[in-house]
Write a structure and sequence with these properties.
It is globular, with a radius of gyration of 21 Å. A hairpin with a 4-residue loop joins strand 11 (275-276) and strand 12. The protein has helices spanning 11-26, 42-51, 118-130, 146-153, 196-202, 226-238, 285-290, 298-304, 316-325, 329-342, and strands at residues 2-5, 34-38, 57-59, 71-74, 79-82, 94-97, 135-141, 158-164, 177-183, 188-190, 275-276, 281-282, 343-345. The chain folds into two domains: 2-205 and 330-345, 3-Layer(aba) Sandwich (Rossmann fold), CATH 3.40.50; 211-325, no CATH class. A seven-stranded mixed β-sheet has the order 3-2-1-6-7-9-8, with helices on one face. It has a two-stranded antiparallel ribbon with strand order 4-5. Strands 10-13 form a two-stranded antiparallel sheet. With 349 residues, the protein is α/β, with parallel strands linked by helices. The structure holds zinc ion (ZN). Residues 57, 74, 76-77, 81 line the site of zinc ion (ZN). Zinc ion is lined by residues 57, 74, 76-77, 81.
Length: 349
């Protein structure tokens, strides 16, 4: 069972569906049930609602879930819904979450425990301790600390962690993140001979493509505003970047573009103007979403054995924000797969 918080447009869901399709080839009947998402952004809620099927409850506000009754108001079913409906077989319940990173990110406010979003952290860890989940997977920026999770969760949880970037898996985009698998040792145990970092090391691949490969759509060259044109000319003289982010001034210390190994820079919610000098246009928001391996076309959905993101009439600004907040599907997928293979339920005595 998969339940997510800070769900965005459902990167963990998309990964789990791909894994299920692969797993069913050698273990028919093995599957994942997507039970609920928790997401405050209305545009994301709409995409979740259209994409992942009727069973998934959508809780719009994490602070309004009543953990003592294990239920909250569900936007999809328009009523109070159980947090985890029923129990499926003897599978441990998994909860995948990415608590807000803005107070921890190097690009963000860096206020950590003093930051305004820390209360949201507190209530989410409180919720987690009261929940019936045996396994929790947390994704956050690399600056986030395992020590903080240990402190918040307390002695009844074990955890392992790994820092991973899509480039480790051969993808030409940057997004280094910390992934932590937490579990209750009274309910589940690590039963496999491999550790998380070994599992990830089996998947390492060399990057063969470049940022250019994400500009796959056949689109006309962009008409630039005079200020964008002048900024682009500065970047051309500067010659560091073939894919400058025109939202950042070339002369500014935040000037950015592709990484030194020619990969797409880490997308942020403000990355709507990553410009390809060769293509003469900006990265399209759909291309930005698909850089996380979120399928935005039928072909991409077929190739990844997952479901196509139903973007509907979502605005381009909202799509850029979604891409800036999203997880790399292959990275979270690797961690989900490792947890599913590594952990087993302890049989009751
Ligand atoms: Zn519901």
């Amino acid at each position: 069972m998969l339940s997510t918080s800070f769900s965005g447009v459902g990167c963990a869901e998309s990964a789990a569906i791909s894994i299920q399709a692969a797993a069913q080839r050698f273990a028919p009947g093995c599957g994942v049930v997507i039970t609920s998402a928790c997401e405050i952004d209305p545009a994301c809620q709409k995409v979740l609602q259209e994409t992942y099927g009727d069973q998934q409850c959508i809780f719009p506000d994490i602070t309004k879930i009543d953990m003592s009754k294990q239920r909250g108001f569900c936007k999809r079913h328009n009523r109070m819904c159980e947090l985890q409906p029923g129990n499926f077989g003897d599978m441990p319940q998994e909860f995948h979450r990415g608590p807000v990173c803005v107070d921890y990110s190097l690009m963000g406010r860096q206020m950590k425990e003093r930051g305004p979003s820390y209360q949201c952290h507190k209530s989410y860890f409180e919720n987690m301790k009261k929940s019936k989940n045996s396994i929790v997977i947390i994704e956050n920026v690399c600056e986030y600390s395992e020590g903080l999770i240990r402190r918040e969760l307390g002695a009844h949880w074990d955890l392992v962690s790994v820092r991973m970037d899509p480039r480790n898996l051969g993808l030409p985009c940057c997004r280094s993140r910390l992934f932590v698998i937490c579990w209750k040792p009274k309910e589940v145990r690590w039963a496999s001979p491999f550790r998380l970092e070994c599992f990830v090391s089996y998947l390492l691949a060399q990057v063969a493509m470049t940022a250019s490969d994400y500009f796959y759509k056949d689109l006309p060259r962009a008409k630039l505003t005079p200020s964008a044109e002048s900024n682009l000319n500065d970047y051309k003289r500067d010659t560091r970047f073939q894919f400058p982010d025109l939202n950042q001034l070339c002369g500014n210390k935040r000037a950015r573009g592709e990484s030194r190994d020619n990969c797409l820079p880490t997308l942020t919610t403000n990355s709507g103007r990553i410009f390809s000098q060769a293509h003469g246009r900006y990265l399209d928001p759909e291309e930005a979403l698909s850089s996380h391996c979120l399928p935005v076309t039928r072909k991409q959905a077929r190739d990844s054995s997952s479901v196509m993101l139903r973007l509907g009439d979502t605005s381009r600004t909202a799509q850029t924000r979604m891409a800036g907040n999203a997880m790399s599907v292959p990275c979270i997928g690797a961690v989900i797969m490792c947890a599913a293979l590594g952990l087993e339920k302890i049989p009751p005595k």
